Amino acid sequence: MRWKKNFKLFHSREMWKRISYLAKKEVMYNFRNRWIIFLSLLFLGLSVLVSFYGTSLEAHKDWLGLQTTILYMTTYIEYMVPIIGVILGYSTIVRERKEGSMELLLSYPVDRGEVLAGKFLGLWIVLSTAVIIGLGAGGVVISLMVEEVVFAEYYLFILSSVILGGVFISISMMFSVIFEEESSAMSASIFMLFLFTFIWLFSMYALAELTFGWELLEIGQPPQWYFILQLFNPVMLWYTLLALNIVPLRDWALEFGGKEPEIHPYDTWVMLVLLVIWIAVPLVISEIIFNKKDID
Length: 296
Hints:
The protein is mainly alpha-helical. The protein has helices at residues 2-9, 13-32, 35-53, 66-89, 94-99, 101-106, 112-145, 151-178, 182-210, 214-218, 224-230, 234-245, 247-257, 268-292.
C-alpha cells in the first residue's frame, strides 16, 4: 500500500534532505529574480502608507494605530496575498513539464510527492519571507509613530496572511498538476481567486436574500447552514479569524454584516485548523494526480 510506504518515509532523514534541497532551489530561483526583495518592499510600503493615509488621499494629522491599520490593510491583503500565491504557484509544475526539466528531475532518486512538497515549501518560504519582513518592518515603523501598540494582534495578522498565501499556492499548484497548458492552469487559478474574493461574498448575500431574508442576517439569526457554507471559503476563514481577535475589525464586520449571532461555529482554533486543511487537501489531490500522469 502506497500510504504505508509514505508513512514509513515520513520520518526518513533522506526524504527531508531531498525536500529541503528542492525548497532551497525554489527560494534561490525567486531570490535571483528579486521576488523576495520586491514583495518585501511592497508590503512595507503598503503598511506604512495605509497607516499614514488610511483609506483617503489626504494625510491624517496623526498616524493610525496598529489595530486600525490592520482594519484598513485587510482590504488590500485579502486580494494581494492570494494573487501573489497564484502567480508563484500556477506554473511551477506545468512549465517544467513543458520545458522537459521535470523529466530530468524525476530521473534522480526523488519521489513525485517530494517534488511537490519541496516546491510548495520553497514557494511558501518566498511568500512568507516577503510578508514577514515587509509587514514586520512596517509594524516597527508604525509603532515608533504611535503611542498604544498591541503587537500580539499584529503578529496574528502577519501569521494569518502567511497561511492564506500558503492556501493559494497549494490551490494553484494543484491546477499546475492537473492541466497540460500553462494558460489553462493560470485561468483555473484566477477563477478560484475571483470565486473566493469576489463572487462568493455577493453569492452568499444573494442566497441569504432568496432564502431566509436579509432581515434575519441583520439581527444575527440566519440558519446554521449559512455559517457552515462560509467555512468553505479560505478568504472568509482568514477574515473571520482576524475578526474574532481584533476588535476594530470585528466592530466593522458587525456594522456592515449585521448583529453577531449567539450560536455560530466560529472559533479561533477552528479557523486555523480549517485553513491548514485548505493547504493540505489540494496538495494531497496534487500528489494523487501527479503520480498517475506520464511525464513526457
